[in-house]
Amino acid sequence: MAKKLEIYKCEVCGNLVEVTDAGAGTLTCCNQKMTLLEEKTADSSTEKHVPVGSEGKYGIKVTVGSTLHPMTEEHYIQWIEVINGDYVNRKELKPGDAPEAEFYVPFKENLIIRSYCNLHGLWKN
Questions:
Q1: Under CATH, what is the fold of the domain 6-37?
Q2: In principle, which of 24, 56, 77, 125 could form an S-S bond with 61, CB 3.0–4.6 Å?
Q3: Known binding positions
Q4: Residues of each annotated binding site for Fe cation
Q5: Tens-place pLDDT, residues 16-73
């Protein structure tokens, strides 16, 4: 059973799905069960993948990595997401963009911040 806000990936075509309403069914794509992505928080590449929130000009500023993540065609952050209770805010990124985003959400310590790397998957603060 899928849970709200979980991220699933199709290993055949690469589709990503975020669950907005949990249900009893199994998520499938391309005639295969989709893979639940684990939210990674640390490993040897933490300095480039974990999203970090700080006070920004208009709300929360998120940068991906204490050493900024590369943003090349081959390796980049696809999106950054801030979850604040019932509100979900996402910024889509593309190669060449800076691996950062600012959201009109007041900065506070208990926000959930996630980012998705096209090579290394889902990361959480």
A1: Rubrerythrin, domain 2 (2.20.28)
A2: 56
A3: 10, 13, 29-30, 49, 69, 75, 117, 120
A4: 10, 13, 29-30, 49, 69, 75, 117, 120
A5: 999 999 888 899 999 999 999 999 987 655 678 999 999 999 999 999 988 889 999 9
For the chain, which residues make up each domain, given as ranges? 6-37, 51-124
Report how far residue 89's alpha carbon sits from residue 91's, in angstroms, rounded to the nearest whole number. Answer: 7
CB count within 10 Å of CB 73 equals 9
**Are 92 and 103 spatial neighbours (Cβ–Cβ below 8 Å)?**
no
User: pTM for the full model?
Assistant: 0.92
Considering the segment(s) 51-124 as one domain, its CATH architecture is Sandwich (2.60)
> Tokens 């199994």 belong to which residue?
26
Spatial distance between the Cα atoms of 13 and 59, rounded to a whole number of angstroms:
36
